[in-house]
Each structure stands twice: as structure tokens, then as C-alpha cells.
Amino acid sequence: MEKFIQRVISIFITIFLFLHLLQAKHYDIDRQPPRKLIFTPHKRSDSDPQQVHISLVGKDHMRVSWITEAKHVSSNVEYGKVPGKYNAKATGEHTSYHYFLYSSGMIHHVTIGPLEPSTTYFYRCGGSGPEFSFKTPPPQFPIEFAVVGDLGQTEWTSSTLSHVESRDYDVLLLPGDLSYADTQQPLWDSFGRLVEPYASQRPWMVTEGNHEIETFPIIYPHGFKAYNARWLMPYAESGSTSNLYYSFEVAGTHVVMLGSYTDFDADSDQYRWLEADLAKVDRNKTPWIVVLLHAPWYNTNTAHQGEGEDMRKAMEELLYKARVDVVFAGHVHAYERFTRIFNEKADPCGPIHVTIGDGGNREGLALMFKTPASPLSLYREPTFGHGRLRVVNQTHAYWSWHRNNDSNAVVADEVWLQSLSTSKSCRAGFDHHTSSFLNDEL
């Protein structure tokens, strides 16, 4: 009996290794194993700022967010164009929250500006601690977005962030799943400290994923308590009533951050907001529209199949009519790029869908894709990495996906994109001033 069990195990291992080799052969690379969780400790005084990060607010303002353990620190930011010399000062607000036995520090949010574009500013938070600096985005093309999903705080996360930082960019976009705290609130603090060297220098614009929900029956039924308190985005400035979805414009690009985990049907606040938001975009002045959400609408990985389908059915037509150029998603821990799609079919006037949930999460990679490959899926690979969208001018942008290696990032996928607002065939019947269609038939 023992020999029989050993033989069965041997056969199982052989089959597993064979399938693994087939998968590796398909992508012609070695699979990346999971790496350890990084817990970043607090090393400053209680009154000094920690977890500093910045985000865009309107066309010429920036929100500075940070946390102090001390409760008496004022919510102000001093800033200027010369290190150590601050000729401007702004005061904001602070908040805190409790989650079971956990009590957060004081969470400060201060909006500074107006600021000049393409300019480096030096700033200090709360009157003490280290000096930080950031560079504002350019007023016009070209502009470069770094795109990273499902980030987490593992050694792969650290690798991804170092690769992102190895080349300059203007704004980081994150389509959900930030800290992977999953109700363990100290991991929110650890994440904030881990990303501070990057998020304090360039604006990080994020939307929520499933790991931000953190509900608990009766006590915390609504969720997103830590996320909303810590990662305040410019939702009010975009006419949204929820921090879970909003939009912003920068250098000729309209970026829409949608919420996969709040209501999205035709009767929802999010749907009505999205419809009104897209209708306001003047494609003559803002030729590019980029959308981010967490659960992908198109996905040929075996993981998380169909989890974005209800949202796709509810909202896809709005994006199609607005001629959205690209949709970025996370959730699936792999990389995949589709052709232009609408209603599950190739369509030259639909957006390109990209899944980029491979930032460095602790759950590992989603290794298995459906076979045979869908003709709609042009590139797919279960590897950690990050992407860059360089919007070169009104008509063209360059997308590249960079696979993580130990010491460098390798460009594994790249494609040039043309804005749908400049495509003659897709502009037929298009009202450039309202981003709506005069009729639904093209």
C-alpha cells in the first residue's frame, strides 16, 4: 500500500511538473516565486510626519497627507521652491479612526497651491521632521503615467517600486489593492511607510480594490474605513459624492477612477456621476480618456472569472460612447493586454483593456490562463511588473509593460496607441464639446 501511495504521488508530481513546464514554455520565462512580507517600522518621533503621500487636486493644487502619532501636531504644510526656504504655508484638516482595538494616529490632509507646472517644490509637514520634495506634472504633452495594481508590501513590491523609480514619471495610477491589510490595521501604517519615499515625490492617484473593503457584520457594515481616512482623493472636486470614484485631468488626459465595490447599476449614484462626468470632457482640449477600476471586465485568466461582468454590462456602453481610449484593471495577479473591444467583440472604436494586477501582492501570481488563447487577448503573462503610459501628443501614446527581474525591469510588451478622439472613423457623429454622440449608430 505504501509503494502504491508513493507511486501515485510520483505520478502527480510528474504531471504537475509537466504542466508547469508547458506554462513556462508558453511564456519562455521562469516563474517568479512569492517573496516575504516587508513590515516597515516607525523610526521617527511621534510628532514627526510619517506615511507622507501626495495627490492631485484640480489643475494646480496638491494634497499632502501624512500621519503623526502625537495628537497635538498642527495640520499645516510649509513649502517653497528652494530647499529649507518656505515662502508659503497652508492649513488643512485632520481625522482619525478606530477599528476594534486599533486606534489610528492623527491623519492630516492639507491642500497647497496654486502651484506652477513642471516645478520642484520642497515642503515640510506639521512644522517638524524631514524635508520632502515633489515635482508637479507638466501643463501639456508629453506626460508619463506609471501604472501599478495590487501592490501589497512584499519583497516583490519593493522590487517593483525600485523599477518604477528608476525612470522618471509624472503621476502614478493604482487600480486598487494597496496595503493588503485585510483588517490588520498596523499593516496600513507599514504600507504607508514603505511607499513614502515614492508617494511623497510624485502624486499617487488610487482607487479601491476588494482588499480595502474591511467590512464586519453590524459593527463595520459599510467598509473602506481605513482607505477613506488615509487615501483621500479629489472626489468632491470632480462632482462625486464618494471617495470610491472620481476623476481628474492632467496635461490633456482625463482620468476616471471607478469603484468596483460600490453600486454601479443605471440607478446608482456612480452611474449617474460617470455619465455626467464623461459628458463634460471636451476632446478638443482633452483628447485622451483613461479609466481605472479593480475587477477587470475582460479576463482570460482562470482566476476571478466573471467578477467584473455585472459592472461591464452596466457601464461599458457609457465608456464606448465616450470613446474611452484605455481601461486599466487589477485584481487578477498577472498581466494581460487585449485588443480594442466592445460588447465582447473586437471593435476599433472600443477601449483597449489592460489587466495589471501584478505589483507584488502577498497572494502570489495567477499562473493559469484559459486555453486556447482568445483572439481578443494579444499578450498575457503571469509575472510581477509595472506599466508606463507615455502620452506623447494629442494623437499618440506609447504603452509598455516592464517585467520584474531581480536587478532590472525588462520591457516585455509594448504598443503604440492612437487616441480615438483623433480617429476619423470613430468620430463620426461625435460631438467634440460634450463627449456624447448625436446618435448611437456609427
From TrEMBL:
Annotated CDD domains: MPP_PAPs
Required co-factors: Zn(2+); Fe cation
Signal peptide: 1-24
Membrane spanning residue stretches: none
A Pfam family matched in the record: Metallophos_C
EC nos: 3.1.3.2
Domain Purple acid phosphatase N-terminal positions: 49-136
Name of the protein described by the UniProt record: Purple acid phosphatase
GO molecular function, one term: acid phosphatase activity
PANTHER family: ACID PHOSPHATASE RELATED, PURPLE ACID PHOSPHATASE 22
Gene it is expressed from: LOC107432214
Keywords recorded for this protein, A-Z: Glycoprotein, Hydrolase, Signal, Zinc
Family in the record: Belongs to the metallophosphoesterase superfamily. Purple acid phosphatase family.
Domain Calcineurin-like phosphoesterase positions: 145-335
Reaction(s) catalysed by this chain's protein: a phosphate monoester + H2O = an alcohol + phosphate
Domain Purple acid phosphatase C-terminal, first and last residues per copy: 350-414
